[in-house]
Amino acid sequence: LKEKITTSTDLQHQLEKLKQQHQEQQTAQQTTTSKLREAQNDLEQVLRQIGDKDQKIQNLEALLEKSKKNISLLEKEREDLYAKIQAGEGETAVLNQLQEKNHTLQEQVTQLTEKLKNQSESHKQAQEDLHEQVQEQKSQLRASQDRVLSLETTLGELNSQLNESKEKIGQLDLQVF
């Protein structure tokens, strides 16, 4: 009888230990799930940032295209006016004014082109950085999923051991009484 009581006590200690391990693994699984959600949220934010940068580049390209059309139109007007001047219908002042306007517009185009180039380079670098972050998040996500699977397997084993221990305790209780 003492031996059965000792065995029963040992099994109860094992049962408590298994319950504690089970609780620790549940906590670890919850932590892993929380990290997984955070990684998914970070990934969504990164994708939104990429979309915003794409929109800015499209806007700058449209502005550059509009400026180029304006320059083309002004150059045509300048050529027409220059032809009139050659025919003696204009004055030197008008020519000087057109040359200044042309120079100003060329500077604007140069500035816009440079700005677009800088934006494109910045966007490309940001995309590369975001791609690296996405890959890192995916890697962390895979590791978390592997950890969850491992914890679920261990949990299944512990539950099986727990059930076996409960059966043994039940059998010992029946034998004691």
TrEMBL record:
One of its GO terms (biological process) is endocytosis. Residues 1-11 have a biased composition (Polar residues). One of its GO terms (molecular function) is 1-phosphatidylinositol binding. Residues 23-33 have a biased composition (Low complexity). Residues 13-22, 117-135 have a biased composition (Basic and acidic residues). Residues 1-34, 117-141 are annotated as: Disordered. One of its GO terms (cellular component) is early endosome. This is Uncharacterized protein. It comes from Aquarana catesbeiana (American bullfrog).
